Recover the amino acids of this structure.
């Protein structure tokens, strides 16, 4: 599968590298970035392996033989680029979210729906993590009975550089940027057909007051009720001292499953005067690097063998919608309610 | 210190035993229960060690030389018995909560306030647990900076006997019965002077639909915002499969502390065909038995050496008030809001 | 049971305190120490509670009504004091070891054997630890099949004061002082009737070269083979950086049990810039304080209700014999071998 | 780098797959097996990707353009195949051990020494495991001071099929087959120049008495003393109930490092009626699969960029020599001693 990578920032470089080196059935043939520094990186790291570089996205789409694109550009252009790619008859793997707007996200899904021969997938990387896949399998095997309560925490390491404030201009807010992963997992474990009944959230700015100018917080909690009698609740923070702490538990009628209650970067423990300790991943990619590799391989497999994509893009729209309502509730202090068709109740 | 124990059910027997055997400076001289089976137990287990048994609480209060009482009766009579004891000039250690009503709880505190020479304490046992005391000391030492987020989980082991439904008639509900411990901890760690801004909760009945007739749930989550820019959020459940799972974490601006993320009954691990596993405490008392012993000793110390009690009874009233508002929000679906004097906003 | 405590150093104070405050059926009536500083401590901490103090051990033995003694004096006098107590018809709880000589230890057992109405017990405290008791119960229940391999580690926290060198003059050496606990556990779990086939050890002095003048080491390993087809192997060190690290595992034909693979002082974990860490006990008593309390209570129970003592004193002699052979092998470099009657083969 | 894979059994298939799919700078061009079933597998899994299959090792060596071979055949032919490959001017990555004889192993090293332009490496996969690499880095950074004690455990899952007895005919015995990894690690962490002073071992057959006919055991322990004042001790077993349990600790003068004290297959924990548990890897490859991939990549890097190989083949000979002496001591019951030039003392 000949694929091109759009966007060569931190995340794009990883996708490019995965398709170049770790996805045996795919071939990275093209890469695009509008950013000269990113292109300089690509000249050194991609061009020598036969990857053609583009400063223009549309030109990359015309690369001869190109069959698919992976979108790792800024969120604001995901939807437009996805729609163009679909129009050009390319399979699409987009970084999450499709858009910070659920209406715009829906347009991507609508475009994809019209071309059912194309594989269009929004990459919720955690679904490709071995531990979350194990949890999914155990739930489906009935190990914990019916899942009732989901708790998801996304904890980014504190970054004193002010990055998070800058980033909040575009990110859609902490629930849309981070909790969206937890929302996707909750939908996956509870059943994607579930109808939301209500959404409520609260947040604070403990270390980055500048976030308030972008209607954002650095610590927030939220509760989502479903008509099915299930509840997902979330904690999201930019204030972890030790590293990336993404933790999950699911309580069912017969048991409980946890993921990453004891974060650790590897199997080493240090016994010294500070006690007994272990280091933990410092960022999202350290925690989930294997998941990104698997995602690239499974997307490729779906394209080449015409299998269903592991994720349904409609689910990605749903997750954005929930995330935005959490963000809204956090800012207004008001509960958001839905009827049994998940139409908002005024 | 000569003490009498009122109530000789599961909890009362433990208090009686602690004051009889594990509190060197106290002497259990009297015990009261209206229940013949409990008295039969006492005849065998307490009377031989010189404890006088009473079927009437008022008579026990008149026991010669009695200086203090520990109340382990049903919640409904805690307040009345506490007020009588205070009137009779006895020190009081009451099981939590003082009452499921904060107004009635307040009456106990008012009675105590008029007799400042008496020690009146509502026993939130977790405060006497070594791990929570360690957390408190570390927070006060500044180890995690300013605490911002508190998460408390009280998880009772699933009891298929129907006990929880019966119990719900009197317990005040799951937040008042269980989460009250977590609320007390949140107030302790955040600072007891903090003013609540809002309260919101949601719950389900996953295994015990009978709870709804008592306006109760078997799984619930809640969020409490404080004017100080701190948030406490809670999960409470009667559905734990492995045993008692009471877990807490506190996130501060500089670090995070957790209690019991890896529950275990002791230091043993079993490696067999099921994997690597450990057993966990099966109930509240197995988890906190040492804390009850320390509580008895510290109450005795406060009485004998005229020291401040480790817990302020006004805090217990505050905890009941918050727990009741969580219970109310869970049942109405509405957020409960307060002004900066913690007066409720209609 | 009226008991007197001989020796009021670090360990004696703990025994005295346990019998004074935490052993409901025993009464500490007397205490002996030849050391003025220890007696000064006792005047302040024991005398006010009715404990008579003695500077002479024989005088304490004559204390009116005295029924039992606990020996927490220096190892060199344990045997003599035990034999005197037995002669005076007192029950005896002795700190381990009875002696650093197995011949002298045997004399205590012989004296006890002649007075079967007396309870004579050598206190291997770990046997009273909840985790080790759990392991014993699980082995007896067949959980791991036949136990085959025992690994015991005793790890003392590094003490840069030079204490361990001084102490080595009297301790009998690191295997006799420390590993004796592990040997006792191995015998308990494997079956006390087992016959030793061979003993081998090796050691180094990594931080305290002064130990060599006392034929001792600061780190040593040893292997004991039994004729039953079981092997116990040991690691012992005075060089732990984080605290006391006493760890054990037992591998059986059907499973494995571990004790304290994850040392921790309580249930708290700290997440900060150093990673995720926990503190661990700093010394033997912090790790095993509950075990000492249970030991005092079970000894009292054995005396008052005329039950068998939980430990057979002949086993204590066996443990000393094995420990001494390990120490010898470490110093000579030679394997020590026994025939099937456990008679040494030259 | 064009590479051929010799041997397509369990291990060979993994090496073939790693060079085919996970080593971007290498190309698997040829594969050899004398076994029709293995070749059938290769026809299906390798041939479609352009890999030429051979039933004759010498013919594979003549494959046009071949630059390197990976040897995953039975141990008995490693040395001969390695020497032939060196003679044919191919780089060699051999599975461990080079031979169960240290003399024969030495011949490979001698052959390699004469062709310094070739990279010849014996693959001790654990060295490429992220946790062991972290330990090595921490030791070199001085985190634990001078390492003094190494404990290595290799624990294979119990296999009731009788496989281990059959395998013992060729494996060289449990120390040569399994502990060799731990020996290699000990040498790596202590310093490969260290001189062995003595070797002692003891073993039992708890579940597979048939092993004795091959002078082997199913559980064994051993101690290796070095003239440097360091001690390595080992436990090796074929009797783990839960899965593969390879555990290591290293104690230094200033701290301790552990690897895999809490085995786990992923980050999931299950809370159910059996307690709280986790699954663990079921075999060596599940535990170390990432290490094999890194090994393939680092070998390729060494060849293509003419860098030193991460492992010195002389070290592999040293490890075999120590393993064989442990095996010998286990069977004779006698300590094996060496002088300061590591010449054996009779």
């Amino acid at each position: 599968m000949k694929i091109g990578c759009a966007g060569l920032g931190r995340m794009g470089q990883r996708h490019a590298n995965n398709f170049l080196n770790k996805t045996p059935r795919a071939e990275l043939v093209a890469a695009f970035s509008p950013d000269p520094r990113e292109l300089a990186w690509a000249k050194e790291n991609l061009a020598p392996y036969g990857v053609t570089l583009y400063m223009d996205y549309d030109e990359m789409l015309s690369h001869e033989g190109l069959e698919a694109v992976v979108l790792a550009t800024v969120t604001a252009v995901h939807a437009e680029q996805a729609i163009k790619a679909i129009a050009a008859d390319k399979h699409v793997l987009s970084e999450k979210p499709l858009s910070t707007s659920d209406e715009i996200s829906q347009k991507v899904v609508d475009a994809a729906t019209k071309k059912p021969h194309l594989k269009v997938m929004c990459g919720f990387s955690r679904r490709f993590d071995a531990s979350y896949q194990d949890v999914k399998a155990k739930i489906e095997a009935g190990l914990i009975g019916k899942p009732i309560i989901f708790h998801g925490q996304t904890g980014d390491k504190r970054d004193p550089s002010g990055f998070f404030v800058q980033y909040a201009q575009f990110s859609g807010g902490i629930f849309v940027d981070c909790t969206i992963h937890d929302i996707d997992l909750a939908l996956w474990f509870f059943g994607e057909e579930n109808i939301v009944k209500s959404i409520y959230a609260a947040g604070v700015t403990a270390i980055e007051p500048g976030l308030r100018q972008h209607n954002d917080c650095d610590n927030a909690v939220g509760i989502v009720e479903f008509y099915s009698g299930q509840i997902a609740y979330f904690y999201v923070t930019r204030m972890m001292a030790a590293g990336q702490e993404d933790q999950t538990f699911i309580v069912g009628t017969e048991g409980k499953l946890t993921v990453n209650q004891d974060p650790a970067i590897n199997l080493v423990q240090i016994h010294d005067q500070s006690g007994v300790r272990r280091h933990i991943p410092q960022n999202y990619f350290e925690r989930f690097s294997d998941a990104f590799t698997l995602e690239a391989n499974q997307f490729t497999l779906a394209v080449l063998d015409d299998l269903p994509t592991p994720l349904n893009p409609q689910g990605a729209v749903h997750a954005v919608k929930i995330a935005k309502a959490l963000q809204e509730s956090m800012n207004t202090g008001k509960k958001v309610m839905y009827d049994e068709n998940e139409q908002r109740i005024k």
About this structure: The CA atoms of residues 250 and 304 of chain D lie 34 Å apart. The domain at 129-291+318-345 of chain D is CATH 3.30.360.10 (Dihydrodipicolinate Reductase; domain 2). Chain D has ten helices and 16 strands. Chain D touches chain C at residues 144, 146, 148-149, 151, 198, 200, 202-207, 219, 221, 223, 225, 229-231, 233, 235, 237, 239-242, 245, 251, 253-256, 261-262, 333-335 (CB under 8 Å).
